[in-house]
Design a protein that fits this description.
Blueprint lengths: L2 E5 L4 E5 L40 H7 L24 E5 L4 E10 L2 E7 L6 E6 L6 E5 L2
Antiparallel strand pairs: 1-2, 3-4, 3-7, 4-5, 5-6
Length: 140
């Protein structure tokens, strides 16, 4: 047990030292991305209205700079083998097709911005390179 020495003018006391803080191991650090576009409040989302661009992944991709042809996400075909920042990633889920814009690429995966991944909202996330829903990449 460690001993803490306290010194005074005329005395020295021996007091057993007790730890004040417990050291814990960091298991995982999760990076939170700050959105580039304003987020929509989930309670206020109405995708029946035409004024919310985040209710459509294609519309959001255009807003983020992709010059997409008139099409839905399921109509878009991969046209490049490997993406760069500014390209699109096509994603296929069990109930829908999706497109997101690539903001960054690093060892963690692909950093994307997208609309309507969460209903009517703009989100940013990192998807790993081996993400099973990636069906290809597009450049427009």
């Amino acid at each position: 047990m460690p001993i803490l020495l306290l010194g005074g003018v005329n005395t020295i006391s021996l007091i057993p030292a007790t730890p004040v803080l417990e050291v814990v191991q960091v298991v995982e650090v999760v990076e939170v991305l700050e959105p580039s576009l304003p987020l929509q409040e989930p309670k206020k989302v109405d995708c029946n209205m035409d004024d919310n661009p985040y209710c459509s992944c294609v519309r959001t991709a255009r807003l983020l700079g992709l010059n997409l042809p008139p099409a839905n996400a399921e109509d878009l075909k991969p046209n490049i083998p490997f993406p760069e920042v500014g390209d699109g990633v096509l994603l296929s889920y069990s109930t829908s097709e999706h497109i997101a814009v690539i903001f960054g690429i690093d060892e963690r995966g692909i950093i994307i911005g997208e609309g309507n991944y969460k209903r009517g909202q703009y989100t940013e996330r990192i998807i790993p390179w081996d993400y099973p829903h990636i069906r290809g990449f597009v450049r427009y």
